[in-house]
Amino acid sequence: MKRARKVVLAYSGGVDTTACIPYLKHEWGCEEVVALTADLGQGAELGPIRDKALKAGASEAVVVDAREVFVTDYAFPALRANALYEDRYPLSSALGRPLIARMLVETARARNCDAVAHGCTGKGNDQVRFDLAVSVLDPELTVLAPAREWGMSRAETIAYSEAHGIPGHVRKSAPYAIDLNILGRNVEAGPLEDLRQEPPEEVYALTRTPEEAPDKPQYITIEFDEGIPTAIDGKQMPPVAMFEKLNVIAGAHGIGRLDILENRVVGIKTREVYEAPAQVVLILAHRELESLTLTAEVLRFKRGVESAYSSLVYDGLWYSPLKQALEAFVDQTQETVTGRVRLKLYKGTATVAGLESPFSLYRYDLATYGPECIFAQDSAAGFIDIFGLSTRVWSQMRNASGNRAAPRPIIEAVDKAERQALS
Fold first, then answer.
1. Running DSSP on this structure, what letter comes out for residue 344?
2. Closest of 21, 30, 32 to residue 3, by C-alpha
3. pTM
């Protein structure tokens, strides 16, 4: 059955995407398969990936360094939105999917492909993210998902690859599914599926256990310009180098470990272990700087925007009109989010140790209890009278209508209990 003539495959080098190459050719009749790998900061993993794709039967294997655009166009906007899915997951893997989808579409157009493909199964989030993003960016392209249809177990998938001359590349002793990029690392499957057990230390690679972290805290200062981190300890840094450095510094102190029971788009709960040292530190610092430079009303409203924004990104709706509208709001709020945040890193935690900004809304002469205070305290009584007026009117109405139940007399109950105790 011929599904497409020429297809570009999002290729990670893993079990499923490697098996997709012979499957697309031999089972679905694709004449050519172009393997596209986006370098999002996988490091040493990228070394043999081109050769692996060609040996698996790809007509062409393309590796594109997309690290800088990943950070500037995807990670930084999410940081300005303090994006944390379900208030915990900083979207380190999810943010890469709309970028890869964009690269798939661009490669398909450049190489005259009539379809794009990915190796996502039917249980995961990434299938939703790829399918939706491609459908928005180019509705004319066909999206193929062999692993969603072939019905093979993981062992059968490995056997299928071996039958087509592709050597096995998964150790049974470490049966984890791992995704790595410059924003972090996530691990699932294997022993992690037993919720009664804590993650074994072998699943971590970017962070030390807090017990083994240095016994002395480390202080660092991060500078922001309109919500974008620009320098560490006074040294200006390019976007990619910023994440690389913070991953090393914070990871050495055991910061950035997340063990999450996560609600997937497809409706199931799954356990995911994440390491995102740089993101955890940056979001903490950015939020604190916002608390200094944004008004209370904007901060309260922005928290709701952040939650909606995070869910849209997680659900694969990066290119949706609502996400774009929310981002416009976030962009406007960041005009004054400029300044320095000093952090204390120690034994798995990061805490704020100092804040300063040219747009600070903190006024010492208003906040102090010292003699320098200029706050007009004699105005407070009138403010409270007006502020509580509607509540008092409501209470008077309730009392007059007889609908108000008398509260339990706390003092009498306490006195009674004390007398009983003494007797």
1. E
2. 30
3. 0.90
